[in-house]
Amino acid sequence: MSDILWSPTTERIEGSVLREYLDWLAEREGHPFPDHDAVWAWSVEDLDRFWVSVVDYFGVSMTPWERVRTAAPMPHTRWFPGARLNWAEHALRRGADADTALFCLREGGGAAREITWAELRRSVAAAAGWLRRAGVRPGDRVCAYLPNTEHAIIGVLAAAAVGAVWSCCSPDFGAEGTLGRLAQLEPTVLIAADGYHWNGKVIDRAEVVARLREGLPTVRHVVHVGYAVDRPAPEGTTAWAELLAQEVPLEFEPVEFSHPLWVLFTSGTTGLPKGLVHGQGGITLEGLKWAGLYAGLRAGERMFAFTSTGWALWNMQLGALLHGAGIVLYEGSPAGGAVWEVAARTGAEVMLLGAAVVTASAGSSPPPNRLRHVMVSGSALPPAGYHWITDNVGDVRIDSTSGGTDVSGAFVGANEYAPVQVGRIGGRLAGVDCAAWDSDGTPVVDEVGDLVITQPMPSMPVSLWNDPDAARYLESYFDTWPGVWRHGDWVTLHADGSLTVHGRSDSTLNRQGVRLGSSDFYDVLDTLPEVAETLVVGVDLPDDGYWLGLFVVPAPGATLDDELKQTIVTTLRTRLTARHVPDEIVEAPAVPHTLSGKKLEVPIKKLLSGRPLDKAANLASVDDPDALRWYARFAADRL
């Protein structure tokens, strides 16, 4: 066992939502559940009964179902067929009218905008009424380009109330990255802000929004959110205030359990970003379980997630609403320890943020706060981060979690019974039958293996967008072991039930806790006349470091000099995001491919991670073996 940094008190355990659920479950099932280990074991042994217990304990309101789930294997499993419900109805039913539902702040201070539950319900009703009058029907797509403000919360709730499908990009995305996602959905409505705040600056996005309007021909209505820049709504758009102008009843469209709620995008190594379609029912159950049993939220409390609308943490935080808990929305940079000041100022009990933000906070001095629980996601929290939180934030449970966009939730994390061990995740979450497998598909303990999920979860995507035969879905998660979800993380499942996540086992880039698709880089850089081809690779380094390298093959007659490097950096920063700027730009003689034309990202990542050439790739399947040998020599020289 690693260093134990914190252990729960008996009083904390007995006063938790988790313990209340276990007591209720013991009476229902007729046998005791002494701790979390007991309920996890039961939940994967009788998966259907566990999820029915979540439905009953949290009082999910839906029409009768035919059975708990279909017999089809993943990814074709369907949960609660025949049932109808509405996620937005559950998100808006618990909060007391006078309590604050949304605390809205931005960098630079100023008064917080506090929106009560009564005001939130009124705004959602008005916006949903406007959508209906605009012709939006169940299944239509409502897309957004919004920062982390109340407009996005109202928008997603209104879209869900109508039965429409929501998808949102953060305004730190450029036009190309946004269109590569939203154009796939053929939206009928676009809600777009004029800008956002970052590091003391107002970032004007009027030009990007104009390009989005041109590049989304299916959009019939554009809603202008005048937020960061003082200018009137452009011609041909509807001002945000008009959405909220009419007082109408709050109505919810009952939809099938698996009816699409939102599309979250995650980028693979080739092609367009993958659109993960999550169902209304699955997200309702996952949000109730995660925010209730694991975040421990109750009505009247509040959660603060430092996130943008382009990260799955934004969607995960919405689970707080299902319990009548408020959400703190902060729009801006975390520089100078701003996130801890926001947590203290708003009286948040639970905080959710990326590990990189904790690391960047090391020089700050957080003010006194009410936090009892700090949840860290995105990437592994380094040991120094655990100690910094304990020394500077207070007597809080540190909960390092892993899961994310794919399930809009978590596979593993802490619980009220688990001690906090430096560098480890507490354990597997109830209803998640996960394990570490070796290359032969054998479960391993205290050894590095592939993270796999062997039974379905309600919050797994019901489909991928534009993937009618599930070919891309199967290729993404089930190509190694049919019927078993391979997540693409290297993990160690320790004998005591805790876990260590070692990083991505595939070629997806994970920088500062945010996945970046290599195809986004190529789509942008291929437009530069001085560049013939590029290859981007991310490598995990010792001490929880990360190296993002960009290999560039200059076009004939061009040279990878300082001027071209600066052009590449500027292009990536302005057309994508600052996170896409590489740590190093390296000139390469060529980019090797498979015989079918795919860039050899995974083999080159293996080389840079120390794997010998004969173990990293089969030269017989490479179009240019000499080019791959160059990368092998480059990697050997760096090690």
TrEMBL record:
This protein's UniProt keywords: ATP-binding, Ligase, Nucleotide-binding
Ranges for domain Acetyl-coenzyme A synthetase N-terminal: 37-91
Record domain AMP-dependent synthetase/ligase: where: 99-456
Domain AMP-binding enzyme C-terminal: 524-598
InterPro entries per the UniProt record, alphabetical: Acac_CoA_synth (IPR005914), ACAS_N (IPR032387), AMP-bd_C (IPR025110), AMP-bd_C_sf (IPR045851), AMP-binding_CS (IPR020845), AMP-dep_synth/lig_dom (IPR000873), ANL_N_sf (IPR042099)
GO molecular function terms attached to this record: ligase activity
Keyword Nucleotide-binding in record: yes
Protein family (similarity comment): Belongs to the ATP-dependent AMP-binding enzyme family.
Name the UniProt record assigns to this protein: Acetoacetate--CoA ligase
Organism for this UniProt entry: Pseudonocardia xishanensis
